[in-house]
Amino acid sequence: MSSEPRGGRSAQLKHTGLRPGWTTGACATAATTAAYTALLTGEFPDPVTITLPKGQTPSFALAAEELADGHAMAGIVKDAGDDPDVTHGALVRVTVRPLPAGAGAVFRAGPGVGTVTRPGLPLPVGEPAVNPVPRQMMRDHVAQVAERYGGSGDVEITISVDHGEEIARSTWNPRLGILGGLSILGTTGIVVPYSCSAWIDSIRRGVDVARAAGRTHVAGCTGSTSEKTVVAEYGLPEDALLDMGDFAGAVLKYLRRHPVDRLTICGGFAKLSKLAAGHLDLHSARSQVDKGFLAELARRGGADEALAAEVAEANTGLAALRICQTAGVPLGSLVATAARDEALAVLRGAPVAVDVLCIDRAGALVGRSTVA
Prior knowledge:
18 strands, five-stranded mixed beta sheet, alpha/beta
């Protein structure tokens, strides 16, 4: 019997024929591992192997290295695979310095890495733009190296990206208040390549596989975190999970012609607020969070004009959500309900019941609709 995945994210990626790549977070983790190993042993591992959150163990060749009194630096060129990622080919450098006992792992933004200057992101104002999952990956690998070679694990980790400030002008970072360069990102360590036509075709194949397996309940998920949420909520098997990415419209239009009994849509609050506002392509290059629309939803949920104005001026969708959570306005569920209604409109009466789950960056439910 073949061990090839029949459905779910792995099968979809294989079906596209596109080569995956590595996130800036994975590259920074590999560079951190190599630099700290050299700091403790005097030798750089090359290639350096790391373990990603889902257990994969890629190896990375070093493109730069430097060992001197009190610090070690390793650099890795980011390979984004077949994804049209603006950071493809960027050199990610990490410099590791020892700190006093008890300091832990401390992160610094070097040249080309941004700093958070506005609220509403998953990091406090003033912090380097190194997202939570990459931070944890680096901490874990520092701890492993420390245990192996007798270190304390108390280090300063300074991450830089050559020409990062220039590259960041092609991203949303300046608008989000991340100044000085790029963000270090990635929840799985893997860049999933998105060719529109190839990925939409993979979604259709995912629906076909689910129907052939007799699945009556499928889930369209925007990423791996939303997949975990759906599995925790409903116990769906892998071949019932559709990795829709940004292509909500592709899922809905194909199910309109090839229905199943029930569809759950699960994704981040900001992405699903775009669906709620009528966008079927959720990519940041083709649709943006409409905070005026969120303000109107907040009014429907009981917000007064002052609160609605605050929502309309929020830096990000997540910031708007937090404002409403503090005020007791259920913006997450209002977005989920509006997204469900938009999905039903696209389905045009096809016999598919729909519910929507909104999550935050950590995967916690922040809103849900009923099934309709």
